[in-house]
Design goal:
heterodimer, A: mainly alpha, 13 helices, 77% helix, B: mainly alpha, MetI-like fold, 10 helices
Chain lengths: 307, 271
């Protein structure tokens, strides 16, 4: 297990470097500099700005400089929010995004696994078809359609939940954003769970368990659930990526001051360092979470470790 | 719903939507860019031929929606063709050559799978001026991974079959074997995965347009229309609901169509 874990960690490092290099190159391959658009500056001022942000160094040197900063946790200054570093901006916004993402993920797992299991046990019945129809719909409808439609009905028309993000709204302000983020993942997880549960329930060891006289609930809980969860576990990586992507939209629509909102602002303002910093941050987050999922997978399913 | 009926129904709906998008603007007396400040946010009505109402600049939403469908479908189809070319070439080469090169090529695909591509596309849109061509290529370039995997797997199994062996024995060159003997056998699976790539491309394009990073005014797409609708939804819910429903409908039809086609080809293979 230790060998497997170490190999996985070593394998993630090149991926991370590739991501950072790719993002860095894209930003620096852009025509023109970050300060070109505003107004024509005297040559001396431009040279000073270039020096202050190390823009006059050759590209490889700039990259090494950036990497050096990253190792120390420094993502550089923001080009637009002049008084803040990118690290500060992300640090202040992160708690909101983390809370939102974690709640959405927990909700998605809970409802998705339950719905998928029920559909698998009632395979072919009307209930199964309803669950699967709903899940195909959930997969097809993008987050930026779900969010405004939910707001339109639940916040504007019927006023059940608040749409805004002021603290006077209390816990209620989490309801619509979390549901929006969770819905597509519920749909995916339900589909995955159903398929793998049907597969597992057809295996010999389940027949043995049933032959011993165990009830359906016990068979599912004790014997079938763990092996059936393996595909769901390996879907966690893409799910996290999807929730991050979705959070960009959700934070924009609900006015939540999270990382995603800064990302959109940065993209529209052409704040290169901020956008680059957030991409690097998101990518590292996804690569590390994928790593954790890989290691967990190895811990649960010993066959994976010896491949 | 049986596989065949799913294919017919969803295919029919998509065809109807596409025909409407092509013919609609031609039938309507309005055009997509003309503003009319006397008729701001008019609700849908048959009388003045604003079937879907007007937007905050008084532009006809029916024609704009039809234009949006055209742009969305065009971007999605071209982007899917880009991913088709990359994916099929990559997968076929990896599968046919095999061995170490195949292993390295697939390891690279695995690495790419872990990346949050959408953020790279946004980065690209920030770094370069937003233009149509870049959107096509960028969206196509991120969706070829599944295609490469599937094509590689299929090529790998085809390579071992007797007819390929026979072709090799008659002294045909490798490109000729790949294009004349292996490629035709890939068509079914490629069609399925293109159908499943299209909704993904639509999703990316409309996501970008929704954020204001994709198609620019006065051009529009379904994503841009949803974005505009969100801003007016308290006064004009139709401006949100119409493009949102159409986008969901198109995405759902492509997903069901892809699923149906997959079942159809699977059934043919196993029988």
């Amino acid at each position: 297990m230790l060998r497997y874990t170490l190999l996985r960690i070593l394998g993630a490092i090149p991926t991370l470097l590739l991501v950072i290099a790719l993002a860095f190159l894209m930003v620096h391959a852009a025509p023109g500099g970050p300060f070109d658009a505003e107004r024509v500056l005297p040559a001396a001022v431009e040279a000073n700005i270039a020096e202050a942000y190390n823009l006059d160094d050759p590209l490889p040197k700039q990259f090494l400089h950036y990497l050096g900063g990253l190792v120390r946790g420094d993502l550089g200054p923001s080009y637009r929010y002049r008084d803040h570093t990118v690290g500060e901006l992300i640090g202040n916004a992160l708690p909101y995004s983390l809370k939102l993402g974690a709640m959405a993920m927990a909700l998605a797992l809970l409802i998705g696994v339950a719905a998928g299991t029920v559909a698998a046990l009632r395979q072919g019945t009307a209930l199964d078809k309803v669950v699967m129809g709903f899940s195909m719909t959930g997969i097809s409808i993008p987050v930026f359609v779900i969010a405004p439609v939910l707001v339109l009905f639940f916040a504007v028309k019927w006023q059940w939940f608040p749409a805004g993000w002021s603290s006077t709204n209390g816990v209620g302000r989490y309801v619509l954003p979390v549901i929006t983020l969770a819905l597509p993942q519920i749909a995916y997880i339900a589909r995955l769970t159903r398929a793998s549960m049907i597969d597992v329930l057809g295996r010999d060891f389940i027949r043995t368990a049933r032959a011993q006289g165990l009830g359906t609930a016990t068979v599912v809980r004790v014997h079938a659930l763990k092996p059936a969860m393996l595909p769901v576990l390996s879907y966690m990586g893409p799910a996290i990526a999807a929730i991050l992507t979705g959070s960009v939209v959700v934070e924009e629509i609900f006015g939540i001051p999270g990382v995603g909102q800064f990302f959109v602002r940065g993209a529209l303002n052409r704040d290169y360092t901020l956008v680059l910093g957030i991409v690097v941050f998101y990518a590292s987050l996804i690569v590390s979470l994928n790593l954790i999922v890989d290691i967990l997978y190895g811990a649960i399913d010993p066959r994976v470790r010896y491949r | 719903m049986s596989g065949n009926r799913t294919i017919r129904v969803t295919g029919g709906i998509l065809l109807a939507v596409a025909v409407l998008a092509l013919v609609g603007p031609w039938v309507s007396p309005h055009d997509y860019a003309t503003t009319n400040l006397d008729r701001i946010l008019a609700s849908p009505s048959l009388g003045d031929l604003h079937f879907f109402g007007t937007d905050d600049l008084g532009r006809d939403l029916f024609v704009r929606t039809m234009l949006g469908i055209r742009v969305t479908l065009l971007v999605a189809i071209v982007a899917s063709l880009v991913s088709l070319v990359i994916g099929v070439a990559y997968g076929a080469i990896a599968g046919f050559v095999g061995g170490r090169i195949d292993a390295a090529m697939m390891r690279f695909v695995d690495t790419l799978y872990a990346l949050p591509f959408i953020f790279f596309v946004i980065l690209l849109m920030v770094a370069f001026e937003r233009n149509f061509f870049l959107i096509f290529v960028a969206i196509g370039a991120i969706n070829w991974l599944d295609m490469a995997r599937i094509v590689r797997g299929q090529t790998l199994s085809l390579r071992e079959q007797a007819f390929v062996e026979a072709a090799r024995l008659t002294g045909l060159s490798m490109p000729r074997i790949v294009f004349r003997h292996i490629a035709p056998n890939l068509i079914g699976i490629v069609v399925v995965y293109v159908t499943l790539t299209i909704p993904q491309a639509i999703l990316v394009e409309s996501f970008l347009s929704f954020l204001g990073l994709g198609v620019q005014e006065p051009q529009t797409s379904l994503g841009a229309l949803v974005d505009a609708g969100v801003k007016q939804m308290e006064r004009a819910s139709w401006a949100l609901l119409v493009p949102a429903t159409l986008l969901a409908l198109v995405l759902m039809c492509f997903n069901f169509l892809g699923d149906g086609l997959r079942d159809f080809f699977d059934a043919r293979h196993s029988s």
